[in-house]
């Protein structure tokens, strides 16, 4: 899973996501919310990495291109960074 390191992969595995096919079956924002609930210290970069892995793109490109979209959606979910 491109852009996801060992720690992120381990956290995903604990939620039952073990490979790219399973990752693509989830909404990245909802998955991020589940990860954040379990591990409050996860950063916004993890959301970008999830989106990047789903799309087979570098997370930094996602962060640059979709930051506003991501922050608005997270705000709607009550998860926007402060």
Features:
82 residues; mainly alpha; 5 helices; 67% helix
Explain this structure to me?
It is a single chain. Helix content is 67%, strand content 0%. With 82 residues, it is mainly alpha-helical. Helix 3 runs antiparallel to helix 4 and helix 4 packs across helix 5. The longest helix has 18 residues. It is globular.
Summarize it.
This protein is mainly α and 82 residues long.
SSE layout and pairings?
Elements: H1 6-14, H2 20-24, H3 28-38, H4 44-55, H5 59-76
Helix pairs in contact: 3-4, 4-5
Sheet with the most strands?
none
How far the N terminus sits from the C terminus, by CA atoms, comes to: 29 Å
Q: What coarse outline follows from CA principal-axis ratios?
A: globular
State the total count of DSSP E strands.
0
Q: What is the assembly state of the chains in this entry? A: single chain
Structural class: mainly alpha
Order of helices and strands: HHHHH
**Percentage beta strand:** under 5%
Structure annotation, total helices: 5
Whole-number mean pLDDT: 96
Radius of gyration using CA atoms only: 12 Å
- Stretches where pLDDT is under 50 for at least 5 consecutive residues are none
């Amino acid at each position: 899973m491109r852009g996801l390191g060992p720690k992120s992969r381990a956290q995903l595995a604990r939620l039952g996501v073990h490979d790219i096919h399973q990752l693509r079956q989830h909404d990245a924002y909802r998955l991020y919310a589940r990860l954040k609930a379990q591990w409050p210290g996860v950063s916004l970069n993890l959301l970008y990495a999830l989106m990047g892995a789903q799309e087979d793109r570098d997370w930094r490109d996602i962060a640059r291109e979709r930051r506003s979209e991501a922050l608005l959606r997270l705000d709607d979910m009550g998860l926007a960074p402060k």
